[in-house]
Amino acid sequence: MKKKELTIVILNYNTKEVLKDCLESLTAIHDKTGFEIIVVDNGSSDGSVAMVKSYYPNVRCLKNRSNLGFARGNNAAKKYVKSKYVLFLNTDTIFKDKVLDKSLEYMKKDEKIGALTCKLVLLNGELDKDTRRSFPTPWVAFTHFSGLDKLFPKSRLFARYWYGYLSPEEIHKVDAIQGAFFLTKKNILDKVGWFSEDYFLDGEDIDLCWKIKELGYKLVYFPKVSIIHLKGVTKGKNKSTNIKNKSERLKYVLAGVNAMEIFYKKYLEKNYNIVVNIFVFAGIKILKSFRYLKVQLEYL
C-alpha cells in the first residue's frame, strides 16, 4: 500500500456528533491528496470511540484512559505518524473540496514555510479571529485585554493581536496559528518535540509556533481556501457542553490564563525589566480572579 502524504490528527473529548460531521466532511471531499486520519480520544464517555469504529473503520482510533489535555492528547499520535505532512484538526470543523490540495500545494512552493493555516470561518460567515495571532508580548496583550484592539480594529499599533490591520483575504506571515487547523511537517515536529506538555489547554499551539519560528521557518495564513469552524464545542465554552461539574468548568476557563503565564515565563520574561514583569504578572493574577469569580456565579 502506498504511504499517504498527509496524516490528519483529530483530538476528541466528548464531541461525538461534531466529530462525526467532521469525519463525514473529510470522507466526502474529492481532493487528490492522499491522507490518513488518526482520531485520538481523550477518555470520552459519550460513545465517540464506538461511533468511529462503527462508521469509519479506516480511521485509526487511539483511546486515552482520561482527558490528557490538548498537548498530551495530540502527542499520543506521534509514533503512528509516518507521513511527510501532518495536519492537526479540531473536531468542530467542516471541510470543503480542495482545502488540502491547495494548502499543501502552496506549502510545497516554499521550503521555509514551517506551518500553515487556511481561513477558518464561523457559522455567521465571519473570520475566526484566532486563526491568525501575534505573540502575546506585554504591549500586544495590553492592547488586546484593554479592548484597544476593538476600539481601533484596523490600527497597526493597537490591533496587532489578531492582525486587524491586514486584510483577511491576503496571504501573509504571522507569529502564530491556532490548533484548529495546523498544517506542518513531521520532520519539523520531531525537531521541536511536538506540542509542549507544559500546557493542559490553550497555549500549546502558540508555543509550537514559537519553536518553529526559532528554527528559522515562516508561519503562513493562507486564506485562498477555507473551512467552517463551529468554535467553542471542543473547549467547553458552554457549561452544558461536555463539562461535568464546576471544578472541570473552572479548569477549562482558567486554562487560557494559565497558558499565558506559562508562555510568558518560558519565552518573554527574560526580555523585559522587572517593572514590566511585575505589571504583567499582576494583570494575569487579576484576570484569573475575574474568571474564577465568573464561574462561581454561573453555578449559584
The CATH class of the largest domain is identified as Alpha Beta
> Judging by the overall fold, what is the CATH architecture of the largest domain?
Alpha-Beta Complex
Strand segment tally: 11
CATH topology of the largest domain: Spore Coat Polysaccharide Biosynthesis Protein SpsA, Chain A
The radius of gyration is 19 Å
Overall tally of structural domains: 2
Mean pLDDT: 93
The CATH superfamily name of the largest domain is Spore Coat Polysaccharide Biosynthesis Protein SpsA, Chain A
Shape: globular
Structural class: alpha/beta
Order of helices and strands: EHEHEHEEHEEHHEEEHHEHH
- N-to-C span: 57 Å
Beta strand %:
15-25%
- Describe the sheet with the most strands: 9 strands, mixed
Low-pLDDT windows of residues: 236-242
SS element count, helices: 10
Helix percentage range? 25-40%
Feature tags:
single chain, 300 residues, alpha/beta, Spore Coat Polysaccharide Biosynthesis Protein SpsA, Chain A, 2 domains, nine-stranded mixed sheet, two-stranded antiparallel ribbon, globular
Short structural description:
This protein is an alpha/beta fold. It has helices at residues 16-28, 48-55, 69-75, 99-108, 138-145, 148-151, 186-192, 204-214, 246-268, 274-298; strands spanning 6-12, 35-42, 60-64, 85-90, 93-94, 113-121, 132-133, 172-174, 176-177, 181-185, 218-229. The protein folds into two domains: 6-235, Spore Coat Polysaccharide Biosynthesis Protein SpsA, Chain A; 246-298.
